Amino acid sequence: MAASSNRIMLGPLVAAIDQGTSSTRFLVTALQSSNVCLKHFNDRCNHDVLCEHPNFLNEFLQKVYERLSEKLTQLNIDISNIKAIGVTNQRETTLVWDKETGEPLYNAIVWLDLRTQSTVERLINKTPGKNKNHLKHKTGLPISTYFSAVKLRWLMDNVEKVHEAVLSHRAMFGTVDSWLIWCLTGGKKGGVHCTDVTNASRTMLFNIHTMDWDPELCKYFDIPMEILPKVRSSSEIYGLMKSGPLTGVPISGCLGDQSAALVGQMCFKDGQAKNTYGTGCFLLKNVGTKPVMSDHGLLTTVAYKLGRDKPACYALEGSVAIAGAVVRWLKDNLGIIQTSTELGRQAADRCGQWTIYPQRLECVRTLRRDCAV
């Protein structure tokens, strides 16, 4: 009787795949109470000097499927109560795969990878005045190693399999959300090739004013538009799960991780901001339905678009690439701490609590200047 009552009280459930730089999580949450019913965690990040991810998806999904039915049965939760799945992901990380075989043509190039520095220099050198902000009026972004178009250009120039697949019209490009959704909705057997506006806005191929891929930007990077995913809003049904115990469940939400954090913290009003700490540290401020361009080095990005017919909202972003990653480096590479909590105590003792966050404080000051707050 108690078990039956628990099932009724939980009501509809939603699931989420949170694919981050240093870990992947699968969560099931009760829609009415927001209580997390199941959390499956996969720590799989072992970066070398070049920051790549191997093909993690099959291993991750296999572990999820193995535990999903077992865990939900233990909790007396009917798997049919899961009504929708959302995806959130590390942004800018770049993949190219073969649409005929479904296999990646190279490891995913992670957002903080710096191998594309020479590509960036070449691209900047061909702009008038060698200006890294030459494309900012359309993209909101500087030409930098950070963004996906530069990584894709590097792959096309340096990986023969990618080059050949592009020429033979077999290549598909995507950020991690695109790869996940394509695989989960059928892969080479009719998988949906799409992305949402928040992830698209981090590629440097997307016009943040027209809210679509820009032919001039694609021409600048010499990237064929046919390999790009279709751009969708952050909240709509993209397709149905085609394998495992969740077959038939719609995938109906997609946000890049920092936009997802902004939405998760309910920063829906102009002027509201969030700060998150993970591999990197990111401060995003909602600036409303009109993009604001920074004169002080902040990025302009799409915050969210919650429905096909809803307006897009924008954000100003201050990004610090290395935050939690440096803690792992101090622990695993230098061995000067045994646990992450030791670092906070040492830094506070030696430097004072706030001096260990100079980049974060500078992001706050810059937001104040750009937004006159």
TrEMBL record:
GO cellular component: mitochondrion
Pfam families per record: FGGY_C, FGGY_N
Record GO terms (molecular function): ATP binding; glycerol kinase activity
GO biological processes: glycerol catabolic process; glycerol-3-phosphate biosynthetic process; triglyceride metabolic process
Gene3D superfamilies xrefs: 3.30.420.40
Sections of the chain in a coiled coil: 58-85
EC number in record: 2.7.1.30
Residue ranges of domain Carbohydrate kinase FGGY N-terminal in the record: 14-264
InterPro entries recorded: ATPase_NBD (IPR043129), Carb_kinase_FGGY_CS (IPR018483), FGGY_C (IPR018485), FGGY_N (IPR018484)
Keywords: ATP-binding, Coiled coil, Glycerol metabolism, Kinase, Nucleotide-binding, Transferase
Name recorded for this polypeptide: Probable glycerol kinase
Organism, scientific name: Sinocyclocheilus grahami (Dianchi golden-line fish)
Organism ancestry: Eukaryota, Metazoa, Chordata, Craniata, Vertebrata
Gene responsible for this protein: zgc:64002
